[in-house]
């Protein structure tokens, strides 16, 4: 084989081993490092204050240039995920306090922190054909198969939230195989998918007869409907509607004049 042919073969081999995005395009080298660290922060392998591998260690681990690794770390700093101390190293940043309107909270932990009992009743886990609305939200074709789950969250035996969720199988292909008696769907998704965008919309609505029955409430009582979408690398992960009886649950925020959430 000629030198030119060998060079082309090696280039093809290197390209074939590069991870692909969900759209089939090669993942930028710096993003591979960035996503690797982000996943470890999100799944708890790296906690606030923990040291992040150094540039030298990451260069050796990933076989990339120092400039590429440096860019990944700089973007993590810009996103507030890590802090860099000159001459010392990089460390996982403390998470800034945020209201439940701005972050995805673990409802089970929130209830238990109040000293109450938490329970989750899974009603549905299935694959369904995406309606026009769901297809648009998840950026899939109408009629394409997506995951669907429905569950009720209870505090001291009283339903406080009806969760109706659709999940993009391109991002989470093993969603339906999970044992949701051990962890609720939102907890599983937060630990599995390093989401980087969240959209929240809150509406005041009246429940349908079926929703009122599942929430053990009067159908004439108003509800708060929190609709959430999340993305990773620009690809939609999930569309979820969380319905709360207004008399049992509140959504709120408190901010400083600068616009930053205030810890209370």
Draw up the topology in text:
Layout: H1 3-17, H2 29-42, E1 51-52, H3 55-62, H4 66-78, E2 82-85, E3 89-92, H5 107-113, E4 118-129, H6 132-138, E5 145-155, E6 158-167, H7 185-192, E7 197-205, H8 209-214, E8 223-232, E9 235-245
Antiparallel strand pairs: 1-3, 2-3, 4-5, 5-6, 6-9, 7-8, 8-9
Helix pairs in contact: 2-4, 3-4
Can you offer a commentary on this structure?
By secondary structure, this protein is α+β, with helices and mostly antiparallel strands. It has two domains: 3-92, Arc Repressor Mutant, subunit A; 107-245, Chorismate lyase (3-Layer(aba) Sandwich). It contains eight helices and nine strands. It has helices at residues 3-17, 29-42, 55-62, 66-78, 107-113, 132-138, 185-192, 209-214, and strands at residues 51-52, 82-85, 89-92, 118-129, 145-155, 158-167, 197-205, 223-232, 235-245. The strands form two sheets. A six-stranded antiparallel beta sheet has the order 4-5-6-9-8-7. Strands 1-3-2 form a three-stranded antiparallel beta sheet. Helix 2 (29-42) packs across helix 4 and helix 3 crosses helix 4 (66-78). The longest helix is centred in the first third of the chain and has 15 residues, at 3-17. The model is unreliable at 2-17, 21-26 and 258-264 (pLDDT under 50).
């Amino acid at each position: 084989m000629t030198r030119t042919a060998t060079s082309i073969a090696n280039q093809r081999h290197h390209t074939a081993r590069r991870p692909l995005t969900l759209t089939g395009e090669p993942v930028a080298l710096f993003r591979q490092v960035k996503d690797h660290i982000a996943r470890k922060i999100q799944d708890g392998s790296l906690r606030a204050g923990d040291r992040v591998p150094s540039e030298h260690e990451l260069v050796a681990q990933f076989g990339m240039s120092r400039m590429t690794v440096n860019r990944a770390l700089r973007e993590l700093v810009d996103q507030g995920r890590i802090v860099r101390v000159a001459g010392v190293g990089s460390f996982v940043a403390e998470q800034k306090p945020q209201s439940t309107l701005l972050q995805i909270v673990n409802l089970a932990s929130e209830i238990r922190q109040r000293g109450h009992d938490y329970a989750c009743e899974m009603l549905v886990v299935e694959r369904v054909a995406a309606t026009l609305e769901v297809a648009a939200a998840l950026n899939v074709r109408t009629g394409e198969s997506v995951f669907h789950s429905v569950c009720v969250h209870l505090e001291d035996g009283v339903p406080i939230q009806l969760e109706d969720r659709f999940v993009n199988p391109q991002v989470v292909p093993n969603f339906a195989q999970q044992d949701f008696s051990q962890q609720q769907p939102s907890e599983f998704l937060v630990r599995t998918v390093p989401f980087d965008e969240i959209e929240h919309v809150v509406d005041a609505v009246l429940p349908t007869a079926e929703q009122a029955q599942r929430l053990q409430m009067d159908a004439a009582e108003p509800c708060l409907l929190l609709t959430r979408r999340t993305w990773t690398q620009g690809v939609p992960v999930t569309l979820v509607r969380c319905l709360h009886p207004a008399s049992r649950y509140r959504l709120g925020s408190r901010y400083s004049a600068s616009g930053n959430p205030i810890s209370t």
